[in-house]
Design brief:
The chain is an all-alpha fold. It has one domain (about 5-160). It has helices at about 5-10, 15-20, 30-45, 50-75, 85-95, 105-120, 125-130, 135-160.
């Protein structure tokens, strides 16, 4: 099991480069949070599209993530290397589904997603521990994104 990943390998191999969020996962502290921050410009850009394009893109990115995260983890010989952050990209995008773009919504979505991803309440923790490979790496963040999205929509509904 190798927890450290050589920077040269991560930056030169397309699978690792994407799985590590264009290098964001190389952050020595809080790589998941840094990966989510790096995802924000992509999410903002995606929020400018139609709902159909948004959801289709997130679906494709999720499927791609199953391969990328699983393959990167396999090559690094680690179940879920902390530097693999493609799942954070997808989870953050799920969080913002059908939300109007405002900086306030984006901030709340970011905070909610990070809370669910870090604390991993049931069933997220159970899935994280029991499902392996690329599906397992992706699925806990997908569910964290769904929970965050529901909470964000609920809060916006109550406030308005």
């Amino acid at each position: 099991m190798r927890l450290s990943a050589p920077i040269k390998i991560i930056l030169s191999d397309p699978v690792h480069f994407l799985a590590f969020g264009f290098g964001a996962g190389l952050s020595p502290k809080a790589p998941g949070t840094v990966g989510t921050l790096v995802a924000l410009p992509f999410v903002i850009l995606l929020m400018q599209s139609s709902a159909a394009i948004y959801i289709s893109t997130v679906f494709v990115l999720g499927l791609l993530g199953i391969y990328l995260c699983g393959e990167s983890a396999h090559r690094l010989e680690v179940h879920d290397h902390p530097g693999i952050v493609w799942d954070e990209f997808v989870g953050m995008a799920i969080t913002m589904i059908a939300m109007p773009f405002t900086w306030w919504n984006l901030l709340l979505g970011f905070v909610f997603f990070r809370i669910f991803d870090i604390l991993k309440p049931w069933p997220i923790r159970s899935i994280d521990r029991s499902v392996s490979g690329g599906v397992g790496i992706m699925l806990d963040d997908v569910i964290a994104g769904v929970f965050s999205c529901l909470l964000l929509h609920g809060l916006v509904f109550v406030i308005q």
